[in-house]
Amino acid sequence: MSLAAGGTGVAHAQSGVTIYGVIDVPFEYVNNQAQVAPVINPVTGAVTRQAGGNKFSLEAAGGMSGSRWGIRGVEDLGAGMKALFVLESGFAADSGQISRAGTIFGRLAFVGLQSDRLGQITLGRQNTSMYETLGNFMPAKFAPLFEPTVALLGGTASGGGLDNAVKYTAVAGPLTMKAHYSFGAGLSKFGLTPVAGQGAGEVPGHAKDNTAYGAGLMYLGAGLGLAVTYDQWNPAVVPGSTGTSKKLALAASYELGRTKWMAGYRWGQNKDAAGGTLVRDNFWWTGFNYSATSALTLTLGYYYDDRRTLKTNAAQPDVNPVNPWQLSFIADYALSRRTDVYFTVGYARNSGLNLDSPAIGFANGAFLGEGKNSQTGIATGIRHKF
């Protein structure tokens, strides 16, 4: 749906507003899933799991895409300059509930200016540079079922979204550069519950608390794709005392005929405020998309997390963490340009699906049952874009 109005006073000025969205609902089966999250001993780091079983449900997060609706607008200011805005709200299509409690536009909410020569600057809640840079290099393009998005990005919530952010984007032929800075991403960036004085950052006297920044450089041309991107978040569990969460990723892709191959590596390190290492891992992935027909696309992805350190506090003894891996398959059939049906399977070893584990605070909700070391998910669903 589009609404447009001509400019007033300037012949070349135009403005337009578009309402858009996606509704995606899969029916899912998962085995070996506990009803509640495992309990982590804060002193020893030991994980206590509950008994698990099979689960049949409609999946709230979506299968190929997170359900959402939004409003975007642009105004031509002349001389190659445009004003723009985006407001986007996520919701659970199985219940109609807003995805981010208490926030109407929890996915995106920003305004900005775009110049043909100087690039684009935007202000507000928006995606991280890493999320947007790596999207072209992920087999399932960050599909909720089954791609380990949270494990890769380090727990960034709502599609890698950050509050209080400034972002710059520039495009020059096949090159795209992005950089962002958040004045206060908040503890909710990792899905954690903030306490008084810690939530959004931007606290007088504590300028570094909960800040975040990053950048990405991407090349897409002649079938070859290359990317490098960095992301850092400075969480303040105690006001005035910040830890660090750092991620650096490299990725490549190549298109040959009907097949697009892709692979990548992400280095990660989380430290507490005293400089003690809590998480240190090397995340690898590879996969391909194959256009079997004009309507049918097949996707296969493999993900492996080489965990060197995994603690809930730096005083815990060093142990050799188990390394989880996952294999994912998608068959997606387009009924039209806006509607598709899909079948997807995920198998995870040494963790819950999407590499759910203490490393990400069990943020995916794929709680592996007691005595189990693998989990399988099968889903089929319908997606409609408007």
Automatic annotation (TrEMBL):
Keyword annotations from UniProtKB, A to Z: Cell outer membrane, Ion transport, Membrane, Porin, Signal, Transmembrane, Transmembrane beta strand, Transport
Protein's cellular compartments: Cell outer membrane
Protein's membrane topology: Multi-pass membrane protein
Transmembrane segments: none
Domain of life according to the entry: Bacteria
InterPro entries, alphabetized: Gram-neg_bact_OMP, Gram_neg_porin_domain, Porin_dom_sf
Recorded coiled-coil stretches: none
Record bears the keyword Transport: yes
Pfam families membership: Porin_4
Stored SUPFAM superfamilies: Porins
Subunit annotation: Homotrimer.
PANTHER family reported in the protein's UniProt record: MAJOR OUTER MEMBRANE PROTEIN P.IA, PROTEIN YDDL-RELATED
Name assigned to this protein: Porin domain-containing protein
Organism: Cupriavidus malaysiensis
